[in-house]
Every structure is written in structure tokens, then in C-alpha cells.
Amino acid sequence: MRVLVVDDNTELAENLAEILTDAGHEAQVAGSAASALAEAGCFDFALLDVRMDGMDGVELLAALRHRCPDTVCVMMTAFSRDERLEAARNLGAQRVLHKPVRVDELLELMQPAA
Question: What integer pLDDT is reported at residue 39 of this predicted model?
């Protein structure tokens, strides 16, 4: 499965991408929403940080929904209460994962999308 991981914490994004690659997925990392939108083509699965400088993850979700409506999008956040989460759900985010992301939870969540 082609997976896009977007987080302005590039160390976290790269660690998640490495885990996903080890699990047999093709993972691509983007450090911002703008760089994610510059990626060619659509992904099967996108893991998006909610809060980022510039365009945030919810705005990115809206853009991805328009461009790639079949991409399964999951949000991730370090905040237990975030007003942006309701907007993300309304835009079709499948789930919200809380940081630190539990690897087993992420991999289990990806199973139905495979």
C-alpha cells in the first residue's frame, strides 16, 4: 500500500515511515502540507498531523479529499482536545490517533484499507 506520512516533526514522520516500510508498505514522508500536495499522484492511505505551521492537517485533508477522494485519511495529534478534530471528521477523516502513535493501533487500522 502507498502511504503518505505528513508531520512537521520530521523525525517522527521518518520513524513512522520506517515502521510502515518494515511492515511491507511503500511510505513517503512530507514535512509540511505544501510538500505533501507537491507529491505526484494519490496514495492509498494518508497519516496527517493536525497542527502544522502554514496549512494545517485539516486544510490538507480537504485538499486531498478533493484531489484523491479514495485515499483513506487518518489524523494524528498530541492534543487531547483540539477544535480542528470535528472539522476533520466532517471532511471524512477515518480516525484520529493520539501521539505518541501506537504502532500496533496504526497497523491494525491499516488492515481494512489494504
Answer: 83
